[in-house]
Amino acid sequence: MESTTGGEIWSNIVLDVHDEPTYGKGDAGEAVDMAESPDSEVEFSVRAQWIRAAVLGANDGMVSTAALMMGVGAVNTDIKSMIVAGLAGLFAGACSMAIGELVSVYSQYDIELAQIKRCIQAGTSKREEAAKMKKKLPCPWKAAIASFLSFVVGALVPLLAAVFFKSYVLRVGMVVAAVSVALLEFGWLSAKLGKAPVVKSSVRVLVGGWLAMGITFGFTKLVGSLV
């Protein structure tokens, strides 16, 4: 089982966003897109599994931690309460994401491995298909590490935005502003990785984050006024 460091995971994500297709010359002198080769498709398929986990983890870490801090801040304006709630959310969420991703991807791994074994037993006609499937097998530990590290990175955004401001109104405003900018960045990143429309993806991620923070703040404020 191969191990991967956090630096390698995030450097690979950056490379995936900025890498451009390479072109060569075919026999007829025409440009050939080397990025469309079968090997390149397999590599992208394997990378996409933990890239998805990293992007999801970062977005979830940022939104859930910010929403938790906003919820606590709705009933307690003390900076210590907001920071402690954010840190608790960071560690609980990161561990939960990593373990959940590990279990989920391991289940996917077992299912695909069983399918490969059935293909091999079916005869030589299926062995080529089995070989391709084996190259695309997911790596549960990569996905788990990517989820954990990315959740921590995402959760640090609202924490760092809040820790330097004693004024409650300014603190909440900085959390919302910092998270909004980061959500737009993650929307752009998701669009680039998935080759989706950038504006639509960014707006969708931003609105989703606003809804999560707003609903949590409003619900907690309501409960706090009734208790």
Automatic annotation (TrEMBL):
GO CC annotations on file: vacuolar membrane
Catalysis performed (reactions): Fe(2+)(in) = Fe(2+)(out)
GO molecular function, one term: iron ion transmembrane transporter activity
Annotated function: Vacuolar Fe(2+) uptake transporter.
Protein name: Vacuolar iron transporter
GO biological process, one term: intracellular manganese ion homeostasis
Membrane topology: Multi-pass membrane protein
Oxidoreductase listed as a keyword: no
Entry-linked InterPro entries: Ccc1_fam
Pfam families recorded: VIT1
Keyword set, alphabetical order: Ion transport, Iron, Iron transport, Membrane, Transmembrane, Transmembrane helix, Transport, Vacuole
Source organism per UniProt: Trapa natans (Water chestnut)
Family affiliation: Belongs to the CCC1 family.
Organism classification: Eukaryota, Viridiplantae, Streptophyta, Embryophyta, Tracheophyta
Top-rank lineage group of the source organism: Eukaryota
Main location (coarse class): membrane
